[in-house]
Design goal:
The complex is a heterodimer.
Chain A: H1 2-32, H2 49-56, H3 58-61, H4 63-91, H5 94-109, H6 112-123, H7 128-135, H8 149-173, H9 177-185, H10 190-201, H11 203-218, H12 222-227, H13 235-245, H14 249-273
Chain B: H1 4-29, H2 47-53, H3 56-89, H4 95-107, H5 110-123, H6 132-155, H7 160-167, H8 172-201, H9 204-209, H10 217-227, H11 232-256
Helix pairs in contact in B: 1-11, 2-11, 3-6, 3-8, 3-10, 4-6, 6-8, 7-8, 8-11
Classes of the chains: A mainly alpha, B mainly alpha.
Chain lengths: ~280, ~260
């Protein structure tokens, strides 16, 4: 009886997740094998047409490796920018820590549309950066900062940097500062301490952060759409295009699943290469 | 090593600037007096805020987003708190499964979840016209944030106080209402603020499930930005940033010290 009553606490959430996460994802899987049709979302019976359409047309098939590279570049930039920040916050005094933490978290509280819009103001042809450089006489023609991979990767790195810093920070904060002090008193140089002590200890944070940023980056829609101006075609943009604008549900679902499975495989390879411990 | 330290410090300052730059730029652009987003600005003015205040489309969108956020926050606050109570006190060996399950909406790509919901609501014959799909999506997106905050709050306390109340004759409900609830109030408040902001700002589920008719603010802003370049969008964004700041500050003043 007591056991049953405690189940009532989790029942609404369990029902919600099962009905509106598990079942819908199964629906996507089934949808990807339905027959394509003209004039309606899908036709009678089942086929592999959606998958054939994706792999058969270079325009669609090539978006996959491009999207994955875009995600990897974003992840790498986030790691390079996020690590010094996480290290800084972890070792900062109590007074500073709150403020720095706030700066890192602040982008999360601002909507993704507004943040991407901010980047278009910065990177546009008559945007802040180009206008400043032109007024200073450094350039004659605006630099191509937007509507290309460069701009999209930069904006994505900004949007997802907090997701890299947070896991890094929690890993670094679990480290006992005495270890680094011991290494130092035994004569290790600072870089050696970083390479042999700090970085290995923070490895779970690096792994979690990289996986999180990679998955978020390849599945993001607004940032590539606004900053890329529809000229950078990620698979996610093509998926939404196929589903919402062209009403091709089996094709869109097949594309989404190919992207999801590829992302899953890359995460597994990454985990194996970095000897990740799953907990 | 002596040279490396100032270089590293400069690098760090650049990263903090990188984090804040796009937000600062949006706020500054909203005070631009010109017809287009030019830099340097052609004088300062509040004209775009005035334009925005006379634009029903954006005002409706803000009201719509606020109602949607309040409703989905209310639902996820109740069921998220129940789930957190179960997770901390009763889950036992299934704890990890429960945690991953509740956090699924946060772990899975939002746009894919939205697409899955779209299909599902069409398959069961409801579609997106009744806003039930949109509302469900928002509850899913906000639930993990309530769960995470309340869980942290619950884990910080031991439940011996509630047990003491029960021993002294309080009913299960009274003990919860008079003892546990006040203790975890800061966690509930933070969770609610997070949930509200997430719902107010989220894009994926709103974009895919909005149906026809009025749309939440991020969607309206996105549609506007695709074809317009006036600083009005910056004024709208600034107001949205301001609303967030007010909410976060209010929660911090009310509950921050106790949390």
């Amino acid at each position: 009886m007591k056991r049953f009553r405690s189940y009532l606490l989790i029942a609404p959430t369990a029902a919600l997740i099962f009905l509106f996460i598990v079942l819908p994802y199964v629906t996507v899987l089934i949808m990807s094998f339905r027959a394509p049709a003209d004039g309606q979302p899908y036709g009678e019976g089942f086929s592999l047409g959606g998958y054939a359409q994706f792999f058969g047309q270079a325009y669609y098939a090539w978006s996959l490796p491009q999207t994955i590279l875009l995600g990897m570049a974003t992840t790498l930039i986030c790691l390079v920018l996020g690590y010094p920040i996480a290290l800084h916050i972890a070792t900062a005094s109590r007074k500073w820590r709150g403020l720095l933490y706030g700066i890192v978290l602040s982008p999360l509280l601002i909507g993704i549309v507004v943040r991407s819009y901010g980047w278009t103001i910065l990177l546009g042809n008559s945007g802040v950066i180009n206008a400043t450089l032109r007024n200073l006489g450094v350039i004659d023609r605006p630099l191509p900062l937007m509507y290309n991979n460069f701009g999209v990767i930069l904006a994505l790195a900004h949007v997802f940097l907090p997701f890299m810093v947070l896991p890094l920070l929690s890993a670094l904060q679990s480290m006992d500062p005495a270890i680094a002090q011991a290494a130092r008193s035994l004569g290790a140089r600072r870089f050696t301490i970083f390479r042999r002590v700090t970085f290995p200890v923070s490895m779970p944070g690096v792994q979690a952060g990289c996986i999180l940023v990679f998955v978020l980056a390849i599945s993001s829609y607004v940032t590539p759409a606004l900053v890329g101006g529809m000229r950078v075609k990620t698979t996610t943009l093509l998926v939404v295009d196929a589903l919402i604008d062209q009403f091709q549900w089996p094709f869109g679902s097949a594309m989404a699943l190919v992207l999801a499975v590829s992302a899953g495989l890359i995460v597994l390879i990454f985990a194996r290469l970095t000897r990740m411990k799953w907990t | 090593m002596q040279i490396a330290t100032p270089v590293l410090a400069l690098f760090r300052v650049c990263i903090y600037a990188f984090l804040l730059a796009p937000i600062v730029v949006v706020v500054l652009a909203s005070f631009n007096a010109g017809n287009f987003l030019t830099f340097p600005p052609q004088g300062l003015s509040l004209r775009w805020f005035w334009t925005f205040l006379q634009n029903d489309v954006f005002l409706d969108a803000i009201a719509y987003s606020a109602i949607l956020a309040a409703a989905s926050t209310a639902v996820s606050l109740v069921i998220g708190t129940m789930a957190a109570l179960y997770f901390v006190r009763h889950a036992g060996r299934e704890a990890e499964t429960v945690r991953v399950g509740v956090l699924l909406p946060l772990i899975l790509p939002e746009i894919l979840t939205a697409i899955a919901l779209l299909f599902f609501f069409y398959e069961i014959g409801i579609g997106t016209e009744h806003k039930i799909a949109l509302f469900t999506g928002h509850v899913l997106m906000t639930l993990p944030f309530v769960f995470l905050n309340v869980t942290t709050s619950l884990q910080g306390r031991d439940d011996s106080v509630e047990l003491a109340a029960r021993t002294l004759g309080a009913s299960r409900y009274t003990a919860f209402r008079r003892i546990t609830l006040p203790l975890i109030a800061p966690g509930l408040a933070t969770g609610a603020v997070f949930a509200f902001i997430i719902s107010f700002d989220t894009f994926g589920v709103s974009f895919i499930l909005k149906g026809t008719g009025s749309a939440p603010l991020p969607i309206q802003l996105y549609d506007y930005l695709r074809f317009n370049f006036t600083p009005e969008a910056a004024a709208v964004s600034t107001v949205s940033i301001l609303l967030t700041l007010v909410l976060v500050t209010a929660a911090d003043l009310l509950f921050g010290r106790k949390a």
